[in-house]
Amino acid sequence: VTLFFHESAHAAAPADSPPGPDRLLSLDSKTLTGDWTGFRRALDDRGVRVNLFLNHQYEGIARGGLPSKRDDRSSASTDAFVSLDLERMRLLPNADAMLHLQSNWGRGINLISGSLYDVNDDADGDLPYHVAQLWFRKHFFDRKAALTLGFLDFQTIVDRNAYANSEDKQFWNQALDNNPLVPLAIGLGAWLEVKPVKWYSLQLGVADAQSVLYKPGFSTAFHDQAWFMGYIENGFRVALPSSRGSLPGNYRVGVVYDPRPRTRFSYSEFDRRPHGDDYGAFVSVDQMVFRERPEDEQGLGVFGRFGYRTPATNRIARFWS
After folding, report:
1. Hey, is 177 helix, strand or coil?
2. Sign of CA dihedral 206, 209, 214, 219
3. How do residues 102-112 score in pLDDT, each as one tens digit?
4. Which range scores top for mean pLDDT: 57-71, 188-202, 267-281, 286-300?
5. Could you tell me if 230 and 280 are in contact, meaning their C-beta atoms sit under 8 angstroms apart?
6. How far apart are CA 218 and CA 102, in angstroms?
């Protein structure tokens, strides 16, 4: 069971349409808490957009799991996003920035389920408010290229998927909202996105491999070991023709570099010396296959993932979903 509140605004209405109701907790309102007596609308006009999320989950184990005195648990998360359009704010052309604050409460049944992966990826334990993302982005060449610097969450950058990429709104299970063989770093990093044509994009990213929540990352990214994860992803956009409008799809293929040392093992011998420089490959596919009307955003879609890591240093070397 999940309870989900989303404070994201709908698409803007036509300029000549009369303003609709935007009252607090109104089902007709564009946002859950209204427009704050006009203050939210004034912020948006100046390039500042605020989105709020609240998730609360109640879970139970119907059968199996690890021995426990109680088989039902609660968990929750809150997120606050502040997006800045620096061009509309008249500060810097072709640039934007974003701050994401997050807090969590409870682990749910993750620790007693007996599953190798978290059955609820949104249940991260008791974490007070912390910075989950804080970045600056500059667009170049008529927005065909963009460079992003700051405290990044690579779950929002690589291995994306239209139907399986969010523990908040799509799948709880950790093995379905992302590829577990792709280490998606959260910390200081850089991301370059290039879109030379409409149907192709290239993602290049580096991220601090030793980042720790609650810390800005400078003590790990620029001191002691210089360990950085590396990402390369090729993305292809496909629109299948149909009598009810085109059906969008995305096909992504990438490689990842993980420098963190780990114990090397095999069936025949056990080497306790740590080994780094680990590589992996991944594929992520999403494709809409049916829609009722051409103007509909919703429809029926399929998705798939595959991942590979070095068998000698990874407990799981192949993954698919």
Report:
1. helix
2. negative
3. 999 998 888 88
4. 188-202
5. no
6. 20
Burial of 55 from C-beta contacts in 10 A (0-12 / 13-18 / 19+): buried
Distance (Å, whole) CA 228 – CA 207:
5
Q: CA 3, CA 6: separation in Å to the nearest integer?
A: 10
Three-state DSSP at 309 gives strand
Letter string b/e over residues 180-192, b meaning 16 or more CB atoms within 10 A of that residue's CB: bbbbbbbbbbebe
Are 78 and 32 a contacting pair, CB within 8 Å? Answer: no
pLDDT given at position 10: 43
Reported for 150-153, long-range contacts at CB under 8 A and 24+ positions apart, including other chains, are: 150/188, 150/189, 151/186, 151/187, 151/188, 151/189, 151/216, 151/217, 152/185, 152/186, 152/187, 152/188, 152/189, 152/190, 152/191, 152/205, 152/207, 153/100, 153/184, 153/186
Of 194, 262, 198, the closest CA to residue 232 belongs to 194
Determine the Cα–Cα distance for residues 295 and 119; give it in Å rounded to an integer.
Answer: 35
Measured CA to CA, the distance from residue 88 to residue 47 in angstroms comes to: 5
- Residues 31, 8: Cα–Cα separation, whole Å: 6
Whole-angstrom Cα distance, residue 159 to residue 179?
7
d(C-alpha 59, C-alpha 167), whole Å: 14
- Report the amino acid identity of residue 37: T
**Amino acid identity at 111:** L
In tens, the pLDDT along 225-247 reads: 889 999 999 999 999 999 888 99
More confident residue, 200 or 260: 200
